[in-house]
Amino acid sequence: MRRLIVAALVVLAAVPPVVAGAQANGSITDVTVSPGSPAPGESVTFTTTIRNLQGSGDPLIIDSVELRPGRSSGLPVYTRVRNVGTLSPGAEVTVPLTHAFNESGTRDLRVYVDARNANTNEPVELRYPVSLSVRERHPQIDVQTDDPVAGVATNGTVEIANGLGTSISNVEVTVSGDGVTML
User: Fold this and answer.
1) How far apart, in whole angstroms, are the C-alpha atoms of residue 149 and residue 146?
2) Which residue has the higher pLDDT, 172 or 21?
3) Which of 102, 98, 81, 109 is nearest to 45 (CA)?
4) Coil vs helix vs strand at 93
5) Which of helix, strand or coil describes residue 6?
6) How far apart are alpha carbons 153 and 180 in whole angstroms?
7) pLDDT for 61-115, tens place per residue?
8) Is the peptide bond before 35 cis (omega within 30 degrees of 0)?
9) Count of beta carbons in the 10 Å neighbourhood of residue 162
10) Of 64, 48, 52, nearest to 92 (Cα)?
C-alpha cells in the first residue's frame, strides 16, 4: 500500500500544472444599416461595432472587417477595411463599410471580422448576420381636385414627389375624359 501511494505522488509530481492562458475575447456588438431600405445603386453604410470584452486577458488586433454574402465564407467580398488597429480589454471601435447593390431584392449578408490575439497571434474570427431589403422606388403622384360637377369648371393640383436620389426630368401630365380640358 505504501509503494502505491509513493508511486502516485511521483506520477502527480511529474505532471506540469495546468495554467489557464489569457485570451482575447472579442464580439461584434451591433451592425447598424443606413439607409435601412435603399434603392438599387444607392450607397449603404454598415456601421459595425467591435468590442474586446472587459474580461479579456489580451489586446485584440483587428486585421480586417468585411461584408460578404451570408451563405458561405468562400464567396466574394463586397467591401473590406484592413488594419483597423488594436483593442485593449474593454475597448470598442466602430468600422463603417459602404457598398451599393445594383439590383432590388432581399440580401442575407454577414460581417466578418478577422482578428488575432496581440500576445499569442492566435486567430479570433467574429461573424454577424445582417439582412437588407433593396427596393425599387419610383416618383409618386398626387392629384387633388375640388368636388367636380359636370359642366362646371373645377380647379385641381398635381403634385409629383421624387423619392429617388437622382433628379427626374421631362415629366408629362395628361388629363383626359369626355368634355375635360386642361388649362
Assistant:
1) 9
2) 172
3) 98
4) strand
5) helix
6) 9
7) 999 999 999 876 567 899 999 999 999 999 999 999 999 999 999 999 999 999 9
8) yes
9) 13
10) 52
